Known about the structure:
Two copies of one chain form a homodimer. Chain A is mainly alpha-helical and about 100 residues long.
Amino acid sequence: MRKTKSTILEAVHETAKGLHKVGVLDQVTLREFDRLCLPPIEPLGPEQIKQIREAARVSQAVFAAILNTSVSTVQKWEIGQKRPTGAALKLLHLVQKRGLEAVV
Amino acid sequence: MRKTKSTILEAVHETAKGLHKVGVLDQVTLREFDRLCLPPIEPLGPEQIKQIREAARVSQAVFAAILNTSVSTVQKWEIGQKRPTGAALKLLHLVQKRGLEAVV
DNA sequence: CCAATCATATCACTAAGTGCTATATTCTAT
DNA sequence: ATAGAATATAGCACTTAGTGATATGATTGG
């Protein structure tokens, strides 16, 4: 990460301070995070999850396989016994927006 | 898959029985699942996960935000204290193959 | 130089996720 | 028709991923 930046850039032009943010080698940190403007990942209710799956026209088993989770989990999502969070929620949003193909 | 078959066959041969399943209403079930040939989602080691993130040139915090998980979780993945499974593992594979843009 | 911000690491707790089993229903093929 | 297969739903007990808070060290900027 910044290791390489220092090595290369500083070797050439070590006084220029703001230059370290220019190259492709630089890392995106929280400082530029505002520009990313990530869409907020909102929680999905049981019915919504079922709708997403049915819109994709797949059974619970196939849906589970594609999301790399268990049928048991998908079922619990759809009956509201468990609520997807984190990466699972993100994946579901991806399927909702871009379809199953974007995920397979 | 069966979609097309049903559409054609039932259109000609309308006993009205399977009519509600015709066309776009059909669902992909486990029966045609073999054809999907899903690539097996293999577990990712700590170093691999770190490589994926560094290849994406983002900090742990940004990486976590994009995956809709916590910084704490990303850290544990990278030091091997916890292993991503299910949807999290699927998401990581997506980033590895298609890049962060495919997920944002 | 000092303060602020970022990145990384550690710890304890909660709940998501898994596997299993069982039942009822629906579709398929003989 | 009828048997066989696949789907959807449900409940239980267990494991561990995931989360939040906090602590330490490294960078940056005023």
